[in-house]
Amino acid sequence: MQFFVEHNSVVRKIWGKSDTVLFIFAGASAEFALNKAVDWLYFTGKLPSDPLARLFSTVSYARKIVFSSMEEAHKTVDTLRHIHTAVEQNRGSSIPDWAYRDVLFMLIHYSIASYELLEKKLNDDEKQDVYNVFYRLGERMKLKGLPLTYTEWQPMRKAYLMADLQKSEYTSDLFKQYKKHLGSTRYKILIEGQKLVVPDRVKELLHFTDFSVLKLLIPVYKLSRLIQIDRLFKTFLLPPAYKDQINELDIHTV
Fold this sequence. Notes:
mainly alpha
């Protein structure tokens, strides 16, 4: 059976551990809130009513694609496209192509940033491997203008960060919703986690400092994984309502 992502791909290592995926989730939640197309996510009302569930849904789709056969991955991507097409029809306008690319670019950036934070630096070949997987996902989504290599993608990513992000009333509202659904303590931890993986442009717009308290705790967390008490950390850090979803993130092994 042919898989969408080969078994020896670093992408399986990245998306096969809940802690890495949760940092992808944290970074994307910050950048999502700044995207100029975030109003599309407000159109159905699902994002503001439960932003954590909406973001978990996005992450879950990505993981399903990573660990599926080629056929099943293509079906999942086609389903995603169909869902968005239905939203477009209901609103009477089209989601801009750059907005789809922005989400794809987030998955690429936060996959690399989160793995490098918790595991090790990726070499050029491994970064290209990550890019290749999401490039093929973008192709299946019928996105146009995607560069062929990670090196060519980097300046495009920087340009998109400058052109497609802004702080708006949606940004403020989403962060209020994050705080409402997480509680004050977990919300503060989310912010500190976001600081560790978001690009400078996102930090600038959200008025984040470069220092994060969590940076001091990362070595302690890595040690907790070695002695297998990291799940206690996750249980404390994350809302009980998402316990099952978080545990499921560790199902796949490589």
